[in-house]
Design brief:
331 residues, alpha+beta, six-stranded antiparallel sheet, five-stranded antiparallel sheet, 25% strand, elongated
């Protein structure tokens, strides 16, 4: 059984339901009358999941931390099909991945006997049936690397039958494999990723496992949703510092758990911002303002609104932006 959490199951079901809605919009009824290709408008008022993060929009310029904006590169260890004593890895996760890939490629399976910040010990899953293979690794303080210290015995177990999927080919291993593909093309289809994994590992993972692995790969590249929301104060602080005259107005709500307010946590509700040059240039635009919006898809939904006008040359001129719960008639 795959170790899917309830939250991952819900995200996957939401993804499947969204696909079903998109497909139903493209189909026609029995009388041959085409259905509208645009999705129906959402209800005027609805409840959406909100991100509980440490948000504080007071004194935005004080949140500027320029080194925080430096993109962090992810060092992915090249895949290996052979394990040898003395092999080194920069991180524990890379060492575990190499051990898993070795067993996957050779159609074996192993289980963890011991794992902490300094040591790893694996044995064959059929150890009790007589297979003598075992592996030990440790974190070397002198080299600041994880080193395979011992490999004892050989896999004497026989695989009764080759299955389509492998237990150790989990979403974490798949995410490491497909990360370069997802980074190059974030919109790559799940079927394409399954084909790549089959070519790379000779196993065919399920659609659900591959979809969850893609979400994890995107998180490894761009960070998770909560971290992104937590960067909003610093982001707007940088805007106000680098673009003089920029105005930002945000609203948050208290986070309650068990009827009590959680200190240091706020629920993001909505935010409005307008750049200084846009504010100054609006004085030279025609007295007509148009507001349009687009839905935001993901773990936390919402609507991005933009107000535009026309300048003297009939060019579109952006005025202001806002992220809100949805388009409503309430003020």
């Amino acid at each position: 059984m795959d170790d899917f959490t309830e939250d991952e199951d819900q995200q996957f079901f939401d993804h499947i339901n969204q696909q079903s809605d998109d497909q139903s919009d493209d189909q026609t009824d029995d009388e041959g009358v085409g259905r509208p290709t645009t999705p129906p408008s959402p209800p005027l008022q609805y409840q959406q999941p909100r991100c509980p993060v440490d948000l504080n929009f007071d004194h935005l310029p004080h949140y500027i931390d320029r080194p925080h904006f430096v993109h962090q590169q992810h060092n992915v260890q090249p895949s290996v099909g052979v394990l040898e004593v003395g092999m080194t890895f920069d991180e524990k996760s890379q060492c575990i991945r190499a051990i898993k890939e070795y067993n996957i490629r050779n159609h074996f399976d192993c289980r963890t006997i011991y794992s902490d910040q300094r040591r790893l010990h694996f044995v064959c899953k059929l150890h009790e049936n007589g297979c003598t293979w075992s592996l030990g690794a440790c974190n070397s303080k002198r080299h600041n690397k994880w080193i395979i210290k011992s490999i004892r015995g050989h896999h004497t177990c026989l695989v009764p039958m080759l299955r389509q999927d492998h237990r150790q080919l989990d979403k974490h291993v798949i995410a490491q494999i497909i990360q370069p593909i997802v980074k190059t093309n974030p919109t790559v289809s799940i079927k394409t990723l399954i084909a790549e994994i089959k070519t790379f590992m000779n196993y065919t993972p399920s659609y659900k496992k591959t979809w969850l692995a893609k979400q994890k790969a995107l998180e490894m590249i761009h960070g998770n949703w909560e971290e992104s929301y937590a960067k909003l104060p610093k982001f707007f602080g940088a805007l106000q510092s680098c673009v003089p005259g920029t105005v930002v107005a945000a609203q948050t709500e208290s986070l309650y758990e068990g009827g009590e307010i959680v200190p240091g946590k706020r629920l993001f509700k909505r935010v409005f911002w307008s750049f200084g040059p846009c504010i100054n240039g609006f004085a030279y635009c025609k007295p007509n303002v148009q507001v349009d919006g687009t839905w935001l898809y993901g773990k936390y939904t919402g609507t991005l609104l933009i107000a535009t006008a026309q300048d003297g040359a009939n060019h579109i001129f952006p005025i202001a932006y806002a992220i809100v719960e949805g388009e409503t008639t309430s003020v």
